[in-house]
Specification:
The structure is a single chain. By secondary structure, this protein is an alpha/beta fold. The chain is about 45% helix and about 10% strand. It contains 11 helices and 5 strands, in the order H-H-H-H-H-E-H-E-E-H-E-H-E-H-H-H. The protein has a 5-stranded mixed sheet with strand order 3-2-1-4-5. The two termini are about 20 Å apart.
Amino acid sequence: MVNKNNRNWQIYNEKLVKRGDFYFSFEFLDSWDQELKRMNREKRGRPFEYPEVFAQFSGLLYEFLHLPYRQLEGALRKLEKFIPKLKAADYTTLWHRIANLKIELPTNKGKIVVAVDSTGIKVTNRGDWMRKKWWRKERRGWIKVHIAVDVETNKLLAMEITDEKVGDSKMLEPLLKDISLKDALLDGAYDNGNAFEFFKRKGVDPPGIKIRKNASRRGLSERSFAVREFQKLGYEEWKKKHQYGKRWAVEGVFSAVKRCFGETVRATSIEGMMLEVRRKFILYNMLLNL
């Protein structure tokens, strides 16, 4: 059945069911020996005992089930009894391999429309009330994730991770420098002259950046031209021209990652926190390939 928004619910529901199957997919066991051989071909020192696909599988369980490393080792030992090809790793190995997990983001072909935004990931799960009440004694802040998403596929194309003090617009160039753009959809946090100049250099003139209501139309800057277009068209027509409603693709990724893997990090060091956040988003990206 197809609804008015053109979503086929039967196909959509089956995709979600298939994700559950993916968490416990053991197809990687078929290539275990071949991948280990490839990984150890030019390896110096102690050879790898576990292929990278095993590290990905373990990382997915670690994030999705929220298991500490020792409990994850116990879960893998139990699975090993039922699945002879599976070889469980100790918790120290799991920690090292998951922390250094190598999963690359996909590269886009051709010009695309991207949605860009950022969100905060809590570094403690003790709640906002506790943070507000005791902030003078403990100020732990946030991990901030900046992402670019293909609005047609909802796939993550680029990601930068910073602390909470870094402004959104400062991360535009690092995010989008290697992406060919047809258009870009962003909220008012990116409404500044530098952002419009950057998109001009990328061949997007003007981008779908929501203009502030009190924006000045005077001047010859790229932003001034964009303000005049926005005011001439009016918000509704401007929204249709840029298909601005598709910007919610990026909000959907944030929501899905937090639902699947939680809103907080378990690592205690800044480097570990950033690696953990990156891992959450890239593992979610893998689910979209199903």
